[in-house]
Amino acid sequence: MMKSMNQAARTVVAPPVFATRRWLLPLALLVGQTVQATPSQAVSDVMALFRQTPLVAIGETHGLNELHAFLRTLIADPAFGRTVQDIVVEFGNAKYQAVADAFVLDQRVVTLAELRQVWRNTTQSAYNTWDAPIYEQFFRAVRTANQRRPAHQAPLRVLLGDPPIDWNVVRSMQDYAAFTDRDGFYAETVLKGVLAHRHRALLLTGISHVLRSGPVTLRRSGTAAERIEAGHPGSLTVLMPYLGFPHALDQTSARLLALGSPRLLPTKTSRLGQLRAAEVFAGPPEAPLGMEDQFSEQSLAQVIDGLLLLGDPATFTRSQTDPALYKDPLYAAELRRRKRIFGIENDPRFGMAALLKPEPLRWYR
């Protein structure tokens, strides 16, 4: 097994844990004036949050090009490397942490076949292989950022937050059951891999895993965010990209888009936070989020701390997976086996036939 030579040399810092949050945003934004937004300002706004809390979570909208373009800009910014030590991702199987460390930390030669194991073999691979180009680009972006860091600065580490499932020994749903507590494993990775070392980290995972007041489906055990903050209150700021609102909120949507983007919009100190979470998480009919039944009467401010305005969602695009990847006979046979375990081999949404169809480019349909 590969072992990172850089791990022992990584700088240990002691970020304060804040019990309260103050948003360092332009005053004009808070009073409703239009301010010209720039990518650097949006990056600065996110970086300011790390002075408030050691953890900043961004709900990773799977496959969204515009979000990952912003993430690559954020990671490439020198201030990010000076401030943040770790990035914890949902789209990586912890069984392959040594592979990720060899590629990102140690700058070693890792073949594409080896690297692909990180995102192709997660617990979700029967449904989502993470083969969209943005996920490989993410790991390469962090590697590049480490190549450009000053010699005295510790490199960024990518921690893989999906349970370490070994598909070679999974033959049934009973075998798979040991790896189903994904929120628990992700939270434990953050607690042991980040906070125990007094590091700062960017957390990238689906928004349902980092909501402050969890959706109904996670209410019993708690989201990863709830589990993290149970022992470290005030340690986390939660953001999600603005993906559009239902048409009943068209006037609100128009006002947000008039602000210009990219921009960070707080929920705690604006009327935005008073919106019902159920309305926001319904999403627009052209690209429904389908989570409206997961909330009771919580306000948006009760479940997230801010929205990342990255542009007009009507113009957003999807990172398209190349269907030719699934014509590899060995890979296709293994995916078919995993889908058979889940009973979705012939499902029109998740079966092999669906993988061979080109994905729509536009996010809105």
Can you describe what's shown?
- Helix content is 34%, strand content 10%.
- It is α/β, with parallel strands linked by helices and 365 residues long.
- Helix 3 packs parallel to helix 7 and helix 9 runs parallel beside helix 10.
- Mean pLDDT is 88; it is low at 11-35.
What is the strand and helix layout of this fold?
Elements: H1 27-30, H2 39-49, E1 55-59, H3 65-76, H4 78-83, E2 86-93, H5 97-104, H6 112-120, H7 133-147, E3 157-162, H8 173-176, H9 182-193, E4 201-205, H10 224-231, E5 236-241, H11 250-258, E6 263-266, H12 277-280, H13 300-303, E7 306-309, H14 329-342, H15 352-355
Parallel strand pairs: 1-4, 1-5, 2-3, 2-4, 5-7
Antiparallel strand pairs: 6-7
Helix pairs in contact: 3-7, 9-10
Summarize the structure.
With 365 residues, this protein is α/β, with parallel strands linked by helices. The protein is 34% helix and 10% strand.
